[in-house]
Structures are given as structure tokens and as C-alpha cells.
Amino acid sequence: MSELIIWTYDWVPEGPRGFVRDLRLRWACEEAELAYAVRTIPFDGRETNHLERQPFGQVPFLNDGALEIFESGAGLLHLARKSEKLMPPDPVGEAETLQWTIAALNSIEMVTVPWWFLNICGDENNGLTGWVGQRLDHVEKILSEREWLAADRFTIADLLMADVLRVPKVRALGDRPATEAYVARVTDRPAFRKAQADQVGLFEAADAKRPA
């Protein structure tokens, strides 16, 4: 039995299926061919039912034997240390991968998530739109000049950046052909398709167990 265990919710509503962030860890394990298991915590009561393992009541979190890690970014970096398929071992390749992994979280997702939240709450012209557009334009320029973000090949930096950029509302904000081609290329990888199908399948199977 694998010592890697990815924890997620036992069910989520239809909207977030395929986007819950345990997918990032599933995807990384599939890319690296790391054996893993998936276990669940109840969606109901999620705000308080697992605070001892995730202090913000979120998913995913990861077990690797006795080691416990929360936050998807931290989990990805841990998995990347296990496989050169996710991060090169040489200092330059590793540094490039690390900086773009952090950029995906800190420079892009940090802006797109609050913008997206305000947007779905009805504030379509919220003050973050210009900021998001500017950040996405920077990424567009970079992706028009290269196929991958780091080390001239796929790494966890691409996994994470593509996962941030593939949100439909983010993709629809402006015309950025290089970014669109990048997201399509990265999410066409077999490891992503399997990870997404497995996550959606878990939540769909749980529908029958929910109260009517």
C-alpha cells in the first residue's frame, strides 16, 4: 500500500467538480507515476471537522507516511522532490521551477481568486479587473516566447500555472491566444485527464449517498 494519501472532501456540489485542489496532487502523482491513495473527510461540517490537520478547514492535505502536509502548493513541492519528472535536480532547473511555482500561487492566483469571487457575487466591474488583466497580459507575453515556464520542459510550475489559468472565467477575460494554447496543451496531458476524471467520478458516485 502506498504511503502517499491525498485527502479531499467526500462530496462537493456540481460547480467545483474538476477544480477542487486535491486534483493538483493527484495530477502530480500521475505525472510522476507515484502510487497514492485518496481518502475523504465529510463535506458537511468542513469548517471545523478537520482543523487539526488543516488549520483553515480546507482541502487538500497530504500524508506521506508519518509526514503531514497541508496547502496544495506545499504538497506539490514535496512530491516534486520525489521525482525528476516534476522538477529538475540541477540547481538552475530547480530554481526556475520553484520561482514559477510560487509565481503561480502568489502573483497570479492571489489576484484571480478574489477577482473571480467578486465576479460571481455580481460585481462584474469590480476594481480588481484591471489588475487581473495586467497580470494575465504579463503571462501572455512570456508564453508567447516559450513552450514551458521552466527548464525547457514540463514541471510542476506548468501544472500549477495551468490549473490556475484554466478557470473558465479567467480564460474568458480578454483574448490571449498563447495562454489559451498553453492551457489546452498542458491540460491535454493524460495525467491531467485521469486526475480530473477520477476526482469528478468520486463526487458523482457520492451523489447517491446524499439526502434527497
What is the CA-based Rg, rounded? 17 Å
Say how many strands there are: 4
Strand content: 5-15%
Helical fraction equals 40-55%
The residue-averaged pLDDT reads 96
Question: Which residue ranges are poorly predicted, with pLDDT under 50 across at least 5 consecutive positions?
Answer: none
Count of helix runs: 8
Helix and strand composition category? alpha+beta
Strand order of the largest sheet: 2-1-3-4
Summarize the biggest pleated sheet.
Answer: 4 strands, mixed
The end-to-end span amounts to 36 Å
**Helix and strand run:** EHEEEHHHHHHH
Estimate the global geometry from the Cα principal axes: globular
Structural write-up:
With 212 residues, this protein is α+β, with helices and mostly antiparallel strands. It contains eight helices and four strands; from the N terminus they run βαβββααααααα. It has a four-stranded mixed beta sheet with strand order 2-1-3-4, covered by helices on one side. A hairpin with a 2-residue loop joins strand 3 (61-64) and strand 4. The radius of gyration is 17 Å and the shape is globular.
